[in-house]
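Thread: Modeling a multi-component assembly for a lab meeting

Hi all, long-time lurker, first post. My supervisor asked me to bring a structural picture of a complex we are working on to next week's group meeting, and I have zero experience with this. I have the sequence lines for every component (283 residues in total). Could someone generate the structure of the whole assembly? Inputs are pasted exactly as I received them:
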Amino acid sequence: MEITDHLLKENKTEKITHQLTDKTSGKFVQGQPDTVVVHFTAGRDARSSIATLINPTVKASAHLVIGRDNSITQLVPFDKIAWHAGRSSWDSRSGLNRYSIGIEIDNAGRLDKQGNEYLSWFKKSYPAEEVFEGVHRNEEAASFWHRYTEDQIKITEDIIRLLVGQYGINLILGHEEISPGRKVDPGPAFPLDKIRNDILFSDRQQEDEDEFEGDLGGMPSETMGLVTANKLNVRSGPSTDSIKITKPLPRGSLVKVIERQGNWYKVKIEEQGWVSADWLRVD
Ligand SMILES: [Zn+2]
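Re: Modeling a multi-component assembly
Sure thing. I ran the full set together rather than chain by chain. Output:
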């Protein structure tokens, strides 16, 4: 895949089509977009979601729709503002459409268990192997969600990497994070934290380690820091003007310290949690 004239173009393996809609607010201002917002469609299939998103009477659009058949459909060029985020805020910003590229992934969303059946809001039944049970980041109790296909997750990650390279994206957020209470997508079945860490932190960390080899402007390796504030904000640069790039670190978190600049430490964030042994390969 590559991006030409703000459109995703295929090479041999992807199925990319363009069904461009003029449901946009025009071009981004200089320096934008710097954010990707991930969504689920909560729809029956990609075809019906695309039909809705290009329907002139529906006040919603998005840049991309990723189907369960690995189809990729672009509806809005990446240099134009689409209507996917709605009422939303992050850090000091509100109205995230003006800052972000919206990726919709075909997925039925939350499922309701009734007897042996898992039903979507539109009353379609899904087999157990397509059901993910997990706790939403904005909720306390576990619930059921439609699984994404492995390919959908991989394709989404590949596209975000391309966008990071092309547009200097430095924030990857879920709709549930910018419109909490109102939106729950992409939900716990989507590995948002992992993808965000892999793309924005781990790669950068590797480059930094290469850069700092033999250069003691960096910290001695394996310097650890313990968070002493209740909530410690993590920012894209060493200044309070820099945007928060992930949720705050809770008191007691241990982080690896990479570098110091003035009154700021650059740290590597490693999140911990329990995962099903069915889904983790340990050699
Ligand atoms: Zn959404």
